[in-house]
């Protein structure tokens, strides 16, 4: 960190995290709304929480900033920080500030203030992780946010469409929106630099939580990079896979939750998940088959209502937190008999 940048304090600022009661050491992987859902739940269970966030976003404000500056896309990092903010007037106010998106007739239109704040700190500190720590302290976050790589990534997919030749689609935004069948996925560059802090957090963790999220653009990238996959595979931490509330949409069109389980397991054959969390709504796309497939792979299953039940595929933070708590305590139930 730049020694010329002073560390400011205020009587209004939240109590430092080190003085708070901590729970188990947990690392959560993902990006966008899916990672925010798991972080919103996990922060109720532990303050020893690290988010490892995808850095391949090329759409919206992040895409515009990334095209103009040699930086990581800040959007998913901002969302993870906002999800971890403390439930105080201070935390909620700063969450709203960093999430604020400008509306204008000029070039600032569509930019998130939090994205600009993160980029400003990156330029001032010349240290992407220190900058994220500064924003985390400002929000009073219940944990730490780290980028999965220290350089911006691109996602490239080989996609098939009925009656057409295979098509190559590049860019997270376009891959996430495709309605074709993803046949193969590549991360560019394939061997990016991984921060020591990321590898240390995985090594020291008691639990790793992967998913939910866009399967090909937020979940799978973490096991497609060899160094990160090896760290996840060989740590002593227990591993939890959180299934999406709705499969078969956009990039996973025509797929079931059982298919999604196979995709992530086949991408990392040596990786062994200890537990799987799914909502009973997956019964509509073969929930019983999902339980059977998980058990066949030696994975314990917790089938529990973790959605808001409002007709949208949205996780309820407290229900998901209760599910994670039960998994951490070794409680596994599902509505079907084996």
UniProtKB/TrEMBL annotation:
This is Putative gluconeogenesis factor. Required for morphogenesis under gluconeogenic growth conditions. InterPro entries: CofD (IPR002882), CofD-like_dom_sf (IPR038136), Gluconeogen_factor (IPR010119). The keyword Cytoplasm applies. It is found in: Cytoplasm. CDD domains: YvcK_like (cd07187). Residues 1-23 are annotated as: Disordered. PANTHER family: GLUCONEOGENESIS FACTOR-RELATED, UNCHARACTERIZED PROTEIN YVCK-RELATED. Residues 1-13 have a biased composition (Polar residues). Gene3D superfamilies: CofD-like domains. It comes from the Bacteria.
């Amino acid at each position: 960190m730049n020694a010329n940048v002073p560390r400011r304090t205020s009587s209004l600022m939240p109590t430092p995290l080190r003085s708070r009661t901590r729970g188990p050491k947990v690392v959560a992987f993902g990006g966008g709304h899916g990672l925010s859902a798991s972080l919103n739940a996990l922060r109720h269970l532990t303050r020893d929480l690290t988010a490892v966030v995808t850095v391949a976003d090329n759409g919206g404000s992040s895409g515009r900033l990334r095209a103009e500056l040699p930086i990581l896309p800040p959007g998913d990092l901002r969302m993870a920080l906002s999800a971890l903010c403390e439930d105080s007037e201070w935390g909620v106010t700063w969450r709203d500030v960093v999430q604020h998106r400008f509306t204008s007739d000029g070039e600032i239109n569509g930019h998130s203030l939090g994205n600009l704040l993160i980029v400003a700190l990156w330029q001032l500190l010349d240290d992407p992780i220190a900058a994220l720590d500064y924003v985390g302290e400002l929000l009073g976050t219940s944990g730490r946010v780290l980028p999965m790589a220290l350089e911006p990534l691109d996602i490239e997919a080989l996609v098939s469409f009925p009656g057409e030749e295979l098509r190559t689609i590049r860019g997270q935004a376009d891959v996430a929106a495709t309605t074709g069948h993803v046949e193969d996925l590549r991360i560019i560059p394939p061997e990016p630099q991984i921060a020591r802090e990321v590898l240390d957090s995985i090594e020291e963790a008691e639990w790793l939580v992967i998913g939910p999220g866009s399967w090909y653009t937020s979940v799978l990238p973490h096991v497609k990079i060899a160094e990160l996959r090896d760290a996840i595979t060989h740590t002593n931490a227990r591993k939890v896979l959180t299934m999406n509330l709705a499969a078969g949409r956009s990039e996973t069109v025509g797929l079931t939750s059982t298919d999604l389980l196979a995709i992530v397991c086949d991408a990392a054959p040596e990786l062994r998940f200890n537990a799987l969390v799914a909502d009973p709504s997956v019964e509509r796309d073969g929930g019983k088959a999902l339980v059977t497939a998980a058990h066949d792979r030696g994975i314990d299953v917790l089938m529990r209502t973790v959605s808001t039940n409002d007709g949208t595929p949205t996780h309820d933070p407290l229900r998901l937190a209760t599910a994670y708590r039960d998994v951490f305590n070794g409680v596994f139930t599902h509505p079907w008999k084996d």
